[in-house]
Amino acid sequence: MAIKKVGVLGLGTMGHGIAQVAAASGFEVIATDATDEFMKKGLARIEKNLGRLVEKEKIDAAKRDEILGRIKGGGVKDFGDADLIVEAVTEAIEVKKKVFGLLNDVAKPGAILASNTSSISITLLSSVVKEPENFVGMHFFNPVPVMKLVEIISGLQTSADAAQVATEFAQSLGKTTIAVKDSAGFAVNRLLIPMINEAFCALDEGVASAEEIDQAMQLGCNHPMGPLTLADFVGLDVTLNALSVLYNDLGSDKYAPSQLLRKYVEAGRLGRKTGRGVYDYSK
Ligand SMILES: NC(=O)c1ccc[n+]([C@@H]2O[C@H](COP(=O)([O-])OP(=O)(O)OC[C@H]3O[C@@H](n4cnc5c(N)ncnc54)[C@H](O)[C@@H]3O)[C@@H](O)[C@H]2O)c1
User: Fold this and answer.
1) Where do the domains of the chain lie, and which CATH numbers do they carry?
2) So what's the pLDDT on residue 283?
């Protein structure tokens, strides 16, 4: 199936980036959010990002206008001629089920429906759509224009054709794809989140200071950022939630969240977004 038009549901952190890279790669984009105000905010973020690229002389003003010209805001009702729809709404099962329920009345037969969920089962989400064989996980990374990977997740009922269309679409955005089973954390978070958890355990046990634990992984393993700094970026609440998914779904104590991580979350020290997590960002 040739993809010409892409729908993006939810224009938050991830959705606005997905809409931007799709339009920059030549696709027509129809995008929406929960309210008109949120939609306008998301579209304004794209305009700002592209403006920055113009300032840095990575693209010229004509290119910016051409890309913006391919992105239209609308409502779910306007998604009827989209060939592929990426859902990037809030990470809550009920919110996602509601959105896919609305799409059931609108999406054209054969349209590929993709979810950018980080932690919800693709098989579970596919159970609410009319054509579960056309439902697939497309897990982009933040920030979308920068990060090169997309995990393509096939649920129990995803057809090989749908996974192939999603794979080719992601590659046409300049991304590298990996095919992943529908299993908690997929591949990246299955590896990354336990490593961050272990960093909190090590900090709690006094193995080294926070700065030294971060340096250990930066200088000893060539990671661009230490695990505790990364946790502050991602959000300690988001990290704890991802760990809880691994712990509950995979049923092994090796994913049991660190007590220190729990305490930080209880204290409201959620990372950069609250001004304090492992580190203090208030100044
Ligand atoms: N932030 C990340 O680093 C990251 C990385 C990979 C995947 N994800 C996944 O991407 C998805 C979106 O995450 P995010 O970080 O962009 O969240 P976000 O909170 O920044 O954005 C979510 C957007 O969805 C909108 N929304 C809520 N209900 C809606 C509805 N009924 N219809 C339309 N829009 C609605 C919200 O208004 C908001 O703009 C989640 O499933 C998350 O797990 C996030």
Assistant:
1) 5-181 (3.40.50.720), 189-273 (1.10.1040.10)
2) 85
